[in-house]
Specification:
Blueprint (H helix, E strand, L loop, with lengths): L1 H12 L20 E13 L4 E12 L6 E6 L3 E8 L6 E2 L1 E4 L8 E6 L6 E7 L7 E4 L11 E4 L19 E9 L5 E4 L12 E11 L5 E4 L2 E4 L4 E5 L4 H7 L3 H12 L7 E5 L8 E2 L4 E4 L12 H8 L7 E3 L6 H19 L1 H19 L25 H18 L1 H14 L3 E3 L1 H13 L8 H9 L13 H14 L15 H9 L7 H11 L7 H13 L6 H10 L3 H12 L2 H14 L5 H16 L4
Helix pairs in contact: 3-4, 3-5, 4-5, 5-6, 5-7, 6-7, 6-12, 7-8, 8-9, 11-12, 12-14, 14-16, 15-17, 16-17, 16-18, 17-18
The structure holds ligand BES and zinc ion.
């Protein structure tokens, strides 16, 4: 008895990190009882009803002899029938119960089986409001004639279009038959055949096991053009040539990453260019990264996004965070690898500029978030929304930590170490604790003088950035600082600044270093010299419009409104909505724009904008 209560006391005092970090608080699934090993989809794409309808057949692997329930994640699915069988025997109908809908996690689906059947087949249809799908009318596409639809499953939206175990700790292979109108091409995160006849009836196979958040589908007027024998671009016909030109270095990026971290293991690597409403910059769907058209800047200045999505083919898709608490294992590793690819292809100056920009963003964000969220190894926050964990900590603090290790151990040791991490955990999920153990065994033990355990733990479990973090200097940014100061302190007119050789990164840094507000006439001067208002470069627009709004430079508003209505990429438009929401007049303008823009926004983007506007309305600005 004494012993028991002692144990209990010990358990209660154990730090949060001692919990099982494989557990996923964002899924109802019970992978310790039974796991999906393969998924077979048979779906029809209905553009009139905004619906996918058909069946999902799950191959099960039972882990507990006594288990009789299969618990799945769903969100807003209409389920008409569930059947089960073993082998090729007859399907028999089985009982299921759909629990009440939870706002964040959807509805738990419990299928009760009289015995441990090998397969379960679910007949279902998605809701027109499915959080993981966007349906675009022809008018919202480049061609203007064919409708378009696409999925965005990460983090927990796969459950809104497939009933499954929606957790990154479960991996499965899949096949699919997808029917569309005959003039529409369908693609998936699978073996897309560049030469497939466009006939409205498509089959896919993904023979490598993937987690649910990498399930992806898109359909529209899509054509293919190659970049190399194994890489190419799918896009609307109006966009495809520009995209091939912009992303012509993709094959070189694959080759560089292979030379660092071992073979690309997924067969083809294609890019799908989405309409501008795509809510993210990119999404690493295996074999087919989904890419926003806003990175087609015309000068290849934003291709680090391709490096990023490609890098996920190692960090994330091959070795996957076991739960979203350890998202830095996906995004921090990927941001680090992205920077290595950029350095190898475009040089250290560019890579350093990109590190400086991202770290400035990290510092700004860190000032806004509570200390307990500033750690890489997040504690379980039951009931929290994994989308909250999307910020700069996982990405930029994660990448910074890996750069720290690289500098301390040297590339000769660190590059093979990272490659061994990917090889040793390929097609598996991993936790921070497993990384820590691997780091100790494979790197620290061999060179005990390089870093201390306390230093490692400061990165992984303490808030903020350790004061021993390596600094990155950029001489090109020093020149931008000097130019900005010359202008701010009236030593030079804007048009006399030496900016002709500046790249997107320098313009971004130039704008980010501006004071909170400027006199409107000063923005007139900048605009006359540099034509920021109306820029086609989303990274510049993302910084210019908030500055102009804060500075009450209302001449920018018509172009700002066009920008907010055309683009649905959350990261690009949210700063402008935030600047608008800070004044009563701006808030009214933002609400008007949102009303017009909403039909073209993805549910993810609408949700973010609505939350922001509601918050501003609840606490009105003076
Ligand atoms: N996997 C992410 C996108 C994501 C993360 C979607 C979490 C949903 C939840 C993707 O690889 C990514 O990081 N995209 C970035 C671009 C990158 C260059 C930082 C984006 O979309 O901005
Ligand atoms: Zn990423």
């Amino acid at each position: 008895m004494r012993c028991l209560s002692f144990l209990l006391a010990l358990l209660l005092t154990l730090p949060a990190t001692a919990q099982d970090r494989h557990a996923d608080e964002h899924s109802y699934a019970q992978p310790d009882q039974v796991r999906i090993r393969d998924l077979g989809l048979d779906l029809a794409v209905d553009f009139d009803k905004h619906q996918l309808a058909g069946t999902a057949t799950l191959q099960l692997e039972w882990a507990n002899e006594a288990a009789r329930e299969l618990v799945l994640d769903t969100r807003d699915l209409a389920i008409s029938k569930v059947e089960a069988r073993s082998g090729k025997r007859k399907w028999r109908e089985v009982e299921f119960a759909l629990a009440q809908r939870d706002e964040r996690f959807g509805s738990k689906l419990t299928i009760t089986l009289p015995r441990q059947y090998e397969q379960v087949r679910i007949a279902y249809a998605t809701s027109p409001q499915a959080s993981g799908l966007q349906w675009l009318a022809p008018s919202m596409t480049s061609g203007g004639k064919t409708p378009f639809m696409f999925s965005q499953s990460q983090a927990i939206h796969a459950r809104s279009w497939v009933p499954l175990q929606d957790t990154p700790s479960v991996r499965f292979t899949y096949t699919a038959r997808i029917r569309t109108p005959a003039d529409v091409m369908a693609l998936m995160s699978a073996d897309n055949d560049p030469a497939a006849p466009r006939d409205g009836d498509y089959t896919f196979a993904m023979p490598q096991a993937i987690p649910s958040y990498l399930m992806a589908i898109a359909a529209g007027d899509l054509v293919f053009k190659p970049i190399s024998g194994r890489a190419g671009v799918w896009a609307e016909p109006q966009v495809v040539d520009k995209a091939v030109k912009e992303f012509e270095d993709t094959e070189k990026m694959i080759a560089v990453t292979e030379s660092l971290y071992g073979p690309y293991r997924w067969g083809r690597y294609d890019l799908l260019i989405l309409p501008p409403s795509f809510p993210f910059g990119g999404m690493e769907n295996p074999r087919l990264s989904f890419i926003t058209p806003t990175v087609i800047a015309g000068d290849q200045s934003l291709v680090s996004l391709i490096a990023h999505e490609l890098a996920h083919s190692w960090s994330g898709n091959l070795v996957t965070n076991a739960s979203w608490k350890d998202m830095w294992l996906n995004e921090g590793f990927t941001s680090y690898v992205e920077n290595r690819i950029v350095e190898a292809l475009y040089g250290k100056e560019r890579a350093d500029m990109e590190f400086v920009i991202s770290r400035n963003g990290l510092k700004a964000e860190m000032a806004q978030i509570p200390a307990e969220q500033q750690v890489l190894m997040l504690p379980a926050r039951v009931g929290s929304d994994p989308e909250d964990a999307l910020g700069a900590i996982a990405y930029d603090k994660g990448a910074w930590f890996l750069q720290f290790l690289e500098l301390r151990f040297g590339r000769e040791a660190f590059d093979p170490f990272l490659r061994a991490w990917f090889d040793g955990h390929a097609f598996q999920s991993a936790t921070s604790e497993e990384f820590l153990a691997f780091l100790k065994a494979e790197l620290m033990a061999k060179n005990p003088a390089a870093v201390t355990e306390a230093e490692v733990m400061a990165w992984m479990t303490a808030p903020g950035i350790p004061d021993f973090a390596p600094a990155t200097e950029s001489p090109r940014f020093a020149a931008v600082d000097a130019a900005r100061a010359d202008w701010l302190e009236d030593r030079k007119a804007a048009r006399d600044l030496k900016t002709s050789a500046w790249t997107t990164q320098e313009w971004v840094y130039f704008l980010e270093g501006m004071p909170e507000t400027l006199a409107p006439e000063r923005l007139v001067e900048l605009d006359q010299a540099f034509r920021f208002t109306g820029t086609g470069n989303g990274e510049i627009a993302q910084r210019w419009y908030p500055l102009s709004e804060r500075s009450q430079y209302f001449e920018a508003r018509p172009a700002m409104s066009l920008f907010l209505r055309k683009i649905g990429r959350r990261k690009l438009i949210m700063p402008t909505y935030e600047a608008l929401a800070a004044t009563a007049d701006g808030l009214a303008f933002a609400s008007q724009i949102y009303l017009m823009a909403k039909p073209g926004y993805h549910p993810i983007t609408s949700a973010s904008v609505e939350a922001l506007l509601a918050k501003a309305k609840a606490a009105p600005a003076q």
